[in-house]
Design a protein that fits this description.
35% of the residues lie in helices and 20% in strands. By secondary structure, the chain is an alpha/beta fold.
C-alpha cells in the first residue's frame, strides 16, 4: 500500500459515523492500518468504550469503508476494547481498581433516576464492561429492590471491609443492605456523608471499568461530599420533559460544573408514553425539556427513554428491563443511552479539571 493510499484509508475509517456511540469512529477509537499484501488489508480498532454487542455490524461497516476507499475486498478487521481511567477533580486520584466513577443525578425526585441508573449499569455490562452500582441515596435506597437483592446482606471477612453483592453481573452496594428496610434513616448531614464514604471506600469492588453511582435528588450534602472527596469522571443528569423537572435539572447540572465534574449529558426519561394495548406513543409530560437543557448548556442529549408500564413492572420484580427483555424497544433505548454516555466519557480529556479555575467563596 502506498503512503497516500494508507492515508486515504485512515481518513476514511476515522470519519465513519458510529451510530452506536453518536460519534465519529476516530473520536472514540484508535485506528491502525496494516497491509499484508496487495490484495489484503488488516485493520485494528481499539475502542475506549464497551461495544461488544455491536461488534459485528461495526466490523462490517469498517470493511465496507476500506473496500470503498481502496477497492480491496479482502479486509481483516480486528476489534478490541481498552477502557482507561479519565480525569477527575483537582487534587483527587482515581479509586484503586475503579477506572471511572459516573454519577447519575437529578435536580428533583420522581424522574425515574434510579431506574435509569440501574439500566445504564446493566447496559454497560451487557456490552462487555466490568460494572459496579453504588446506591448513594442514604435516606431512600431503592437499588436493593430494583436489583432483586432485598433482604440480602454483604459479608465482611475481616470486620473492616465488605464484599459487594452481585446481581445480573453487577457488583452492588447500598445502605439498604445494612439496615432494616422499614427503619427511617433519621440522620443529620455528617452521618449521611460518613455513611457514603464507608460504602464507597470499605467495599471491595475489585477491578471495575465503571462504578455507576445512583445519587439522591437535589444538591445537598451527598452531592457536596461526592464532589469534594470522590474522584468522579463524569455526571449524567436525568430529567423529564416538563418545565418543573427541567428547572431543577438545570440546577443540578450547574452544580456539577461549579465543582469541576464534567457533565457527560442529559437523559430525558418518560419522554413518551407507550400504550400497552395499541402501542401508540404520546408525550404526556410535554416535549423538549431535555433538548433545551442540552442546547443551553452545550452538552449532549444522551437519550430519550419511554414511559412504559413494563419498565415499572420489571424493576419491581428485581429484573430491570435490560435484563428482563433485552430485545425490547425500551431496552434498546437504555443501551443507546449507555453507549452514548460511555462515548462522551471516552472523548473527555484526561485532565479535565485543569480547564476550570479554583472556586473561592469570599465573605461579602
Amino acid at each position: 500500500m502506498t503512503p497516500s493510499t494508507e492515508s486515504d484509508v485512515d481518513k476514511a475509517l476515522k470519519s465513519i459515523d458510529l451510530d452506536q456511540a453518536g460519534r465519529k469512529l476516530g473520536e472514540v477509537a484508535t485506528v491502525s492500518v496494516d497491509e499484508r499484501s496487495e490484495r489484503r488489508i488488516a485493520v485494528s480498532v481499539r475502542f475506549g468504550l464497551p461495544l461488544a454487542r455491536a461488534f459485528d455490524p461495526i466490523r462490517a461497516r469498517i470493511a465496507e469503508a476500506v473496500t470503498a476507499a481502496t477497492g480491496v475486498r479482502d479486509v481483516d478487521v480486528r476489534l478490541e476494547t481498552d477502557i482507561v481511567a479519565h480525569g477527575v477533580q483537582r487534587n483527587l486520584k482515581p479509586l484503586p481498581g475503579i477506572r471511572n466513577v459516573v454519577a447519575v443525578a437529578s435536580g428533583k425526585g420522581g424522574v425515574g433516576k434510579s431506574t435509569v441508573a440501574v439500566n445504564l449499569a446493566l447496559a454497560l455490562a451487557a456490552d462487555g464492561a466490568r460494572v459496579g452500582l453504588l446506591d448513594a441515596d442514604i435516606y431512600g435506597p431503592s437499588q436493593p429492590h430494583m436489583t432483586g437483592l432485598a433482604g440480602r446482606h454483604p459479608v465482611s471477612e475481616d470486620g473492616k471491609t465488605m464484599a459487594p453483592l452481585e446481581a445480573h453481573g453487577l457488583a452492588v452496594m447500598s445502605i439498604g443492605f445494612l439496615v432494616d428496610p422499614d427503619q427511617p434513616m433519621v440522620w443529620r448531614g455528617p452521618m449521611v456523608t460518613s455513611a457514603l464514604n464507608q460504602l464507597l471506600t470499605q467495599t471491595r469492588w475489585g477491578e471495575l471499568d465503571y462504578l455507576v453511582v445512583d445519587m439522591p435528588p437535589g444538591t445537598g450534602d451527598i452531592q457536596l461530599t461526592l464532589s469534594q472527596q470522590v474522584p468522579v469522571s463524569g455526571a449524567v443528569i436525568v430529567t423529564t420533559p416538563q418545565d418543573i423537572a427541567a428547572i431543577d435539572a438545570r440546577k443540578g447540572l450547574a452544580m456539577f460544573r461549579k465543582v469541576s465534574i464534567p457533565v457527560l449529558g442529559v437523559i430525558e426519561n418518560m419522554s413518551t408514553h407507550v400504550c400497552t394495548h395499541c402501542g401508540h406513543e404520546e408525550a404526556l409530560f410535554g416535549a423538549g425539556g431535555g433538548d433545551r437543557i442540552a442546547a443551553d448548556f452545550g452538552v449532549t442529549l444522551l437519550g430519550k427513554l419511554p414511559l412504559d408500564a413494563s419498565i415499572r413492572e420489571q424493576t419491581d420484580e428485581g429484573r430491570p428491563t435490560v435484563i428482563a427483555d433485552p430485545e425490547s424497544p425500551a431496552a434498546g433505548a437504555y443501551l443507546r443511552a449507555a453507549r452514548r454516555t460511555a462515548a462522551e466519557l471516552a472523548v473527555q480529556g484526561r485532565d479535565y479539571s485543569a480547564r476550570f479555575p479554583k472556586i473561592v467563596v469570599e465573605d461579602s
